[in-house]
Design brief:
heterodimer, A: seven-stranded mixed β-sheet, four-stranded antiparallel β-sheet, globular, B: six-stranded mixed β-sheet, about 55% strand
Chain lengths: ~120, ~110
């Protein structure tokens, strides 16, 4: 199957700093990518839909000024958590649709810990 | 509004047993349905994708069926192994790009 790579897999930062997470589709072009947040033992919560060359669409309740999403190319979307606080600590996962079959592929996830 | 429900929420079986995981969805107008596996602390791995025009898909010991009219899909795992222990998620794509996920079934296969 297609491969989606996410980096870093884990990151620890101090409160007030910003952290960038990258999501790359390695062997296909992805005009649409998704960013999720997952709390322990819970299902995925969609945060936003990232569209190449245009602004991301955020789900209700997600602060777009805190979670900046950029989808500058057909293979790369980034999520920047700005002025991170301990409550932003979570597992963040990206996904991309491989359009030929409409199959959804996920990255490995990024564990963010804010001290 | 599309809703996806997975039953059971958790399942523990002895190694070698055949098992069925269930997924139901409320709106039969779907584009496709996908089954995923998630290991603790990891991303999701795609297992099987069933297009709306298809009835089933098979990969190795896994078989997924789709009955749109009744709003149901099942994931059949043959001869379960301890390595199959994970959370299995059913996801429905109604149309457009968004996907609706079930809460998952946590499977534990005992050696």
């Amino acid at each position: 199957g297609a491969v989606v790579s996410q980096h870093p897999s884990w990151v620890i930062c101090k409160s007030g700093t910003s952290v960038k997470i990258e999501c790359r589709s390695l062997d296909f072009q992805a005009t649409t990518m998704f960013w999720y947040r997952q709390f322990p033992k819970q299902s995925l919560m969609l945060m936003a839909t990232s569209n190449e060359g245009s602004k991301a669409t955020y789900e209700q309740g997600v602060e777009k000024d805190k979670f900046l999403i950029n989808h500058a190319s057909l293979t790369l979307s980034t999520l920047t958590v700005t002025s991170a606080h301990p409550e932003d600590s979570s597992f963040y996962i990206c996904s991309a649709i491989e359009t030929s079959a409409g199959e959804l592929f996920f990255g490995e996830g990024s564990r963010l810990t804010v001290l | 509004k599309q809703e996806v429900t997975q039953i059971p929420a958790a399942l523990s079986v002895p190694e070698g047993e055949n098992l069925v995981l269930n997924c139901s969805f409320t709106d039969s107008a779907i584009y496709n349905l996908q089954w995923f596996r998630q290991d603790p602390g990891k991303g999701l791995t795609s297992l099987l994708l069933i297009q709306s025009s298809q009835r089933e898909q098979t990969s190795g010991r896994l078989n997924a069926s789709l009955d749109k009219s009744s709003g149901r899909s099942t994931l059949y795992i043959a001869a379960s192994q301890p390595g199959d222990s994970a959370t299995y998620l059913c996801a429905v794509r109604p149309g457009g790009f968004k996907t609706i996920f079930g809460a998952g079934t946590r499977l534990f296969v005992k050696a």
